[in-house]
């Protein structure tokens, strides 16, 4: 008789307290609210808590540095998890009601809301299908909890869809229509995962060097000052010096000294009258 009454009374008190109580002594004292002014008996309370915990009717956590016990109704725990899961969704929903939004702008936030909702649904299904994978985790997610979150989210999505008029529903569904996945071919996979041999590395290095030699042969002049360089290494060093000048002295000074650039193939100066005019105006200021 004591066992059954204690179990029910604990659950009743947790419901009255919003689904959460911190501290064993706090729970013990709260017994007076439904036990004719008498607190719970300590040993009987511990036994009842163990029974409720074992049957999954309550959850018990250890929190804080002092190791206080936190007693939670599973439904309350689901509500907390759901709020955390749908936090970004709720932000999008709130933005739907901000003033001054055009219809297409509202549709943007509605579209984002549903994208987040379906992403969360996929995540829950992913965790559910992988329930056996998480058995090695310290606190693996309970399948019952995942299913409750999934059902709650499905209901929320359906409710939001039902609130739309037919035209808006059609537009949203067109936007959310799933695309065919981009599948990776075996050839591409092998290319991406291939680790080059030392021979291949040398060949690639030689190929790159030859490309740079060829590029310098066709474009031997400096693009900043028009000077002809003897090879690509000299051209690189020469360009680095110009870059240091540009950083140190600024663009107006640089343009005043070298102009607006040179053709790397011919070494002839490029004329950009519009740019030169703008630079002169900057210099006057």
Account of the 3D structure:
Strand 2 (59-63) and strand 3 form a beta hairpin. The chain has 285 residues and is mainly alpha-helical. The chain contains 13 helices and 3 strands. Helix content is 64%, strand content 5%. The model has no long low-confidence stretch (mean pLDDT 83). The protein has helices at 2-16, 24-29, 42-55, 74-85, 87-95, 103-129, 143-162, 166-176, 186-193, 198-218, 232-249, 251-258, 273-284, and strands spanning 20-22, 59-63, 68-72. Helix 1 crosses helix 3 (42-55). It has a 3-stranded antiparallel β-sheet with strand order 1-3-2.
Tags for this model:
elongated; 285 residues; 13 helices; 3-stranded antiparallel sheet
The SS-based structural class is: mainly alpha
| Secondary-structure element series | HEHHEEHHHHHHHHHH
Q: What's the helical proportion of residues?
A: 55-70%
User: How are the strands of the biggest sheet laid out side by side?
Assistant: 1-3-2
Largest sheet: 3 strands, antiparallel
Strand portion: under 5%
Number of helices: 13
Care to count the β-strands?
Answer: 3
The shape, in one word, is: elongated
* N/C terminus separation: 94 Å
The Cα radius of gyration reads 35 Å
Uncertain spans: none
Q: What do the pLDDT scores average to?
A: 83
């Amino acid at each position: 008789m004591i066992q059954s009454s204690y179990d029910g009374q604990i659950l009743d008190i947790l419901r009255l307290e919003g689904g959460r109580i911190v501290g064993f002594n706090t729970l013990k004292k709260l017994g007076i609210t439904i036990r004719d002014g008498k607190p719970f008996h300590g040993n009987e309370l511990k036994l009842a808590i163990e029974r409720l915990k074992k049957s999954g009717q309550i959850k018990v956590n250890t929190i804080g540095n002092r190791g206080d016990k936190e007693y939670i109704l599973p439904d309350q725990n689901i509500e907390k998890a759901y709020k955390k899961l749908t936090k970004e969704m709720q932000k999008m929903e709130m933005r739907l009601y901000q003033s001054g939004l055009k219809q297409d702008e509202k549709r943007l936030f509605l579209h984002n809301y549903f994208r987040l909702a379906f992403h969360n649904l996929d995540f829950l299904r992913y965790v559910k299908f992988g329930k056996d994978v998480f058995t090695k985790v310290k606190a693996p997610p309970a399948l019952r909890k995942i299913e409750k979150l999934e059902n709650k989210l499905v209901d929320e999505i359906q409710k939001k869809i039902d609130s739309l008029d037919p035209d808006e529903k059609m537009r949203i569904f067109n936007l959310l229509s799933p695309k065919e996945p981009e599948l990776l071919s075996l050839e591409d996979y092998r290319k991406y995962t291939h680790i080059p041999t030392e021979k291949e590395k040398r060949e690639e290095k030689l190929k790159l060097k030859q490309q740079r030699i060829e590029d310098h042969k066709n474009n031997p002049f400096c693009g900043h000052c028009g000077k002809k360089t003897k090879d690509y290494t000299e051209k690189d060093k020469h360009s680095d010096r110009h870059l240091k000048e540009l950083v140190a002295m600024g663009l107006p000074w640089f343009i005043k000294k070298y102009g607006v650039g040179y053709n790397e193939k011919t070494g002839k100066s490029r004329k950009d009258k519009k740019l030169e005019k703008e630079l002169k105006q900057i210099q006057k200021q």
